[in-house]
Amino acid sequence: MRRRAADWIPAAFVFLGGIALWEGLVRALDVERFLLPAPSAIVETLWERRELLWNAGLYTFSEALGGFAIGCTLAVLSAILLSRFHRVGQALMPFAIAANAVPIIAFAPITNQWFGPLNKTSKMAIVAILVFFPVLVNTLRGLTSVRPSSIELMRSYAAGEVEIYRRVRLPNALPYLFSALKVATVLAMIGAVVGEYFLSSQEALGFQIRNSAALFQFELAWAAIVVASVLGVAFYAAVALVEHLTMGWHVSARGES
Amino acid sequence: MTEAAAAAVSIRGVSKRFERGNVLALDAIDLDIGPGEFVSLIGPSGCGKSTLLRVIGDLVQPTEGEALVNGKDAHRARLDRDYGIVFQDAVLYDWRTVARNIGLPLELAGWDRGRRTERVAEMLGLVELEGFADHHPWQLSGGMQQRVSIARALSFSPALLLMDEPFGALDEMTRERLNGELLRIWHELGATVVFVTHSIAESVFLSTRVVVMSARPGRIAGIVEVDLPQPRGPETREHPRFAEHITEVRRLLRSGGMEGL
Amino acid sequence: MSNAAAAAPLSQRRRIDPLPFLRSAATSLLLLAVFWALWEGYKWLGERVGIDWPFTVNERTMPHVHEMFGQLFEPSRRNGPLLIDVLADAALFTAREAAVGFALGATIGFAIAVVLSESRLLQRGFLPYIVASQTIPILAIAPMVVIWINPKLPDPLAGWGAVAVIAAYLTFFPVAINTLRGLTSVDPRAVELMRSYAAGRWSILWKLRAPASLPYLFTALKIAAPAAVVGAIIGELPSSIQDGLAGAILNFNQYYVTSPPSLWATNIVAAAVGILFFAVVAVAERLVVRRAPENVA
């Protein structure tokens, strides 16, 4: 059910209230300013250092995007393969679930050793591994959660495996896939930034955040974080847009998911 | 087993208009149900029979008019827990055993564990599900789940039993069997029953009176007095008057706007 | 829905059937062996043929699996304690932070969900922010959170307290959202039933909504538990906390060249901690949530 504009009013109030409170508190409690700067100070820094932040943002975003592309492609291909060989898929499920529980980001130093810390590829690799498992698990679920009667119907039309994939399994998997992709965008951006905490090129956003925080330049640190957040949201929104365009017909796209 | 005192139900001029879509679900319904009666409400979809049932149970407030249970208004009757209700869906809690499901209203009424256990055992006997006390709802068949639901509704010996198409989701054979069991329970308890159904045969088999309702807006199209001998059993379905009553009900349904009958 | 066949005596059905369990355990072991073989095989091939892409394969980049595990029983540094002791201490340290944070976040998340479930107005006011809090990459601001909070904490909590806060932040969101969904998606007829028993708001919450929301809660907890571990590890990074897993990772990363398997062993231990947290929640779910077994086609 589409939200009426009026439904957003309570939320808008909370938002404006929150910002006002933040600004007010920071001005009142002078002590805190250098740790948690006023919104106005952050905006100012965003503007002043925009070139640096923009470049860093692009750098990190390219890592996120690259890892996202690699990881998701591999995951979808694997999911298709595993859905075909059902029993292998079932046997591997516990491993995929366990892999999801592993703190993958902790492997960043290892990818640094493989590809070099200053190389974008090391961060892309971590992002790829990070997004691989959730996308795999969800897409697999989407491919295999088809009602048996749908499959039976196709067989009654003498449809082959490829046809069944094309007409039934893949369309059925799309909502699951997109839901996983949206989660992956968030993971990708965070993974890229946090991966950079372990060591990275100076051009990276993560480096900026850590570095400026260590130098007590908190306005810059927060500004960099704002850039990371905005890029993350934009990434998510882009995928959501693609979802809407390809799946506008689907029930879940019409309402709150 | 304590005899439940039977309740009389009075419905005076009850109308219900729903704001959404400005729908008049019930239009000035007047109905008196005597204590110990078994009354069915039957009618086409949207005739308001379920709504009427909920008005009696104070789960829906009428726009006009009032419903009285034993002289009390429906709200008071609900707070005094004067009735038990059974839905088409058994609505059992998966995380409780059968015994704890049946004991739920007793818990809420503050009964202590000893009394509860005793009563639950009685109820299980009544619906013939002894031995299933520690099962979970999903381990039972649909018919068994409904029996648990009935046991729960009767656990505090209400004077009034409200039933909203309780057997609608079951297959015909289970349905007929449960019809028989329900009548047996009704005889044992002597409570008043208001029973909503879609099935003409069921309404005639079970009831002392069948109230036929018309299509929206809901009005009473007519009432059929079912004078078949009690206690009723499978042989009742072959009684000559059985088919006649069915025809009567059908005729009223047609006149009330139900086509194709 | 099960039929009369399921009406067998309860005691018989509760016994765990050993055969399928053994079979799947055997399959898992087999798969582990396959992964091991793949690793060693790729390594062997890589060193023989000189594979250069995506990365050079040699002793440094791909230690033997048995070396990784064997390293645990070697001294962590010259004349030092065994690696496994060092890592066990580090793991315990990090696990404690994560557990405290997890418990804190879960409690707060649950409380938020209960409060919001009672009022649609509150939901509309606050839900978008709770959702938006996800867009703040808490892991990204970990450095600042830690620097900010640490000085404020009383002594016993200093150092690791801030890290627990990060873990809590990562936990509260999924718990709040999922529990809220569970509390509000109760069958309306179950609510009608409660009203027919003249049950008050509190009874309805306690006896109906809360138990009904348990499956949703546990789904969230299974997501949050590993997240809390990640949060703890990342939180330790900037704090220059040496005692935890992050410290160990950074340390063995620094000295990687002298002993590559040490870093791998550390990562294996970190992975084990994550899996353990998840497993504990999964087992708890089995015990607490008694529902119809899920059908996976």
Descriptive notes:
The complex is a heterotrimer of chains A (257), B (261) and C (297). In chain A, 79% of the residues lie in helices and 0% in strands. Chain A is mostly helical and 257 residues long. The longest helix of chain A has 37 residues, at 161-197. Chain A is globular. The termini of chain A are close together. Chain B is 35% helix and 23% strand. Chain B contains nine helices and ten strands. Chain B has helices at 49-56, 74-79, 98-102, 104-108, 113-126, 142-154, 172-189, 200-206, 240-255; strands at 9-18, 23-33, 38-42, 64-69, 72-73, 83-86, 160-164, 192-197, 209-213, 220-225. In chain B, the strands form two sheets. Chain B has a six-stranded mixed β-sheet with strand order 6-7-8-3-9-10, with helices on both faces. In chain B, strands 2-1-4-5 form a four-stranded antiparallel β-sheet. In chain B, a hairpin with a 2-residue loop joins strand 4 and strand 5. The longest helix of chain B is centred in the last third of the chain and has 18 residues, at 172-189. Chain B is globular, with a radius of gyration of 18 Å. The N and C termini of chain B lie far apart (43 Å). Chain C is mainly α. Chain C folds into two domains: 17-62; 83-288, MetI-like (MetI-like fold, Orthogonal Bundle). Chain C is 72% helix and 0% strand. Chain C has eleven helices and no strands. Chains A and C meet through helix 1, helix 4, helix 5, helix 6 and helix 8 of A and helix 2, helix 5, helix 6, helix 9 and helix 10 of C.
